[in-house]
């Protein structure tokens, strides 16, 4: 009995120690932490731009910038047509309604040509928008940047042309229908004089850009709170906006890789006054802060791929050979002598009609009856004198028709009454009152009465 008790106690102790050891091992082990692998952004070359943008525009070889792209959109203006501004952690971001808006509005620069319109010059760095900003006078304004404008350098009044700028009242900044509130372009000069440049900059992948108006200022003008959108990388070209999220394709552009791609079609038709170019020149980007290595892009000399099928040569129409002209059998034209020894040919003799040519009788002219010149009883024409002695007739004076000048009736003038000369008006002489003593009125003289005379 004691033996069984000892065995039971021993087994219980062993089981208890084994359980405690297992618990201590499980509690002391650290909990694993899951970390999402960091994905590197895709890298592309300019050939991706050529492929993705060719269906929506045309590529041309521009003398100043090399290969540039023109959108097939009538009336298109960058950062104004079909799009709006959205605030993100990177600043004000342009959200385009076009399928191709992921590239031209976030890479490269824009320039305007009077013949072609707006030209997009591809670039290497991504930004929410490559624009310059202004504010003041109740307006916000922006303008696309051209090649050669460096970020962080002070922009003068004439650095950006005035027709590049687009202005909108402060209360409509960030509206989805912002294109309905653009100011009239004719007022740009007045608005520019009342605004100042916004110099607030930001960086993305080492590239500096202007991020636009301050968020707090826009909230104060619009009277509403602004919820920033979040940017996410997309896996294919394009962009999509949903629930305060923007999925945009923003890969890196290889700068030191020779480009092997080329657009499917390049419009090399020169504009008026421009010489045609046989190949695309090397385009060097302007030195600015967007290219930290200050390296030039590779050459864009076109090289056809090796697998391009050879086009059959178009047959040219055969031109029948003309037989040498035989001398005509014409007695009127002299025959040209042969020149077998390549001697100098004599001068061609003048044509002389043959002697046996029948004379053509001269056609008789009709005799005109002689008209006797009688004096004309017309006072307007001078009379021609008779020529009885065969004396030379005086030259007949040329007839000059009289000029009938119509008599314009004279407009009757209004009769002005003749004023009689003013006669001097004699004023009545003041009557003298005779002075009498005691101021008594003088006595009137009795009037004499004439007596009638007796006949």
TrEMBL record:
Transmembrane segments: none annotated. Keywords: Signal. Residues 251-455 are annotated as: Disordered. Residues 399-415 have a biased composition (Pro residues). InterPro entries: DUF6600. Residues 416-428 have a biased composition (Low complexity). Residues 275-305 have a biased composition (Polar residues). Residues 1-22 form the signal peptide. This is DUF6600 domain-containing protein. It comes from Parasediminibacterium paludis.
């Amino acid at each position: 009995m004691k033996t069984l008790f000892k065995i039971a106690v021993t087994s219980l102790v062993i089981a208890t120690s084994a359980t405690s050891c297992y618990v201590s091992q499980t509690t002391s082990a650290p909990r694993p932490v899951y970390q999402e692998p960091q994905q590197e952004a895709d890298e592309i070359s300019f050939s991706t731009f050529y492929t993705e943008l060719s269906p929506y525009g045309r590529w041309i070889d521009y003398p100043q910038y090399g290969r540039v792209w023109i959108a097939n959109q009538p009336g298109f203006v960058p950062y104004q047509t079909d799009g709006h501004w959205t605030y993100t952690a990177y600043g004000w971001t342009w959200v385009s309604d076009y399928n191709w808006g992921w590239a031209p509005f976030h890479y490269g620069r824009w320039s305007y040509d009077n013949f072609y319109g707006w030209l997009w010059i591809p670039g290497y760095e991504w930004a929410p928008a490559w624009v310059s900003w202004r504010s003041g006078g109740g307006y916000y304004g922006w303008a696309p940047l051209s090649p050669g404008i460096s970020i962080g350098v002070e922009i003068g009044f004439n650095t950006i042309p005035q027709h590049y700028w687009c202005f909108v009242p402060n209360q409509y900044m960030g509206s989805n229908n912002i294109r309905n509130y653009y100011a009239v372009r004719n007022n740009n000069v007045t608005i520019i004089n009342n605004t100042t440049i916004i110099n607030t900059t930001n960086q993305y992948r080492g590239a500096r850009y202007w991020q636009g108006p301050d968020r707090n200022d826009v909230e104060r003008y619009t009277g509403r709170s602004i919820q920033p959108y979040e940017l996410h990388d997309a896996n294919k070209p394009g962009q999509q906006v949903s629930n305060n999220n923007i999925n945009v394709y923003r890969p890196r552009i290889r700068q030191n890789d020779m480009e092997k791609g080329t657009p499917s079609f390049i419009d090399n038709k020169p504009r008026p006054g421009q010489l045609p170019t046989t190949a695309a020149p090397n385009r060097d980007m302007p030195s600015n802060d967007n290219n930290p290595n200050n390296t030039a892009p590779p050459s864009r000399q076109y090289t056809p791929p090796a697998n391009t099928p050879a086009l059959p040569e178009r047959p040219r129409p055969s031109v029948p050979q003309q037989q040498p002209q035989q001398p005509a059998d014409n007695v009127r034209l002299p025959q040209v002598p042969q020149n077998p020894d390549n001697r100098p040919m004599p001068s061609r003799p003048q044509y002389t009609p043959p002697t046996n040519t029948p004379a053509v009788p001269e056609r008789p002219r009709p005799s005109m009856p002689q008209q006797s010149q009688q004096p004309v009883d017309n006072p307007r024409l001078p009379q021609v004198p008779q020529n009885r002695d065969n004396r030379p007739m005086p030259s007949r004076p040329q007839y000059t028709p009289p000029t009938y000048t119509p008599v314009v009736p004279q407009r009757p003038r209004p009769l002005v009454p003749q004023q009689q000369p003013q006669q001097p008006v004699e004023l009545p002489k003041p009557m003298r009152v005779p002075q009498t003593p005691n101021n008594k009125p003088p006595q009137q003289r009795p009037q004499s009465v004439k007596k009638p005379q007796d006949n």
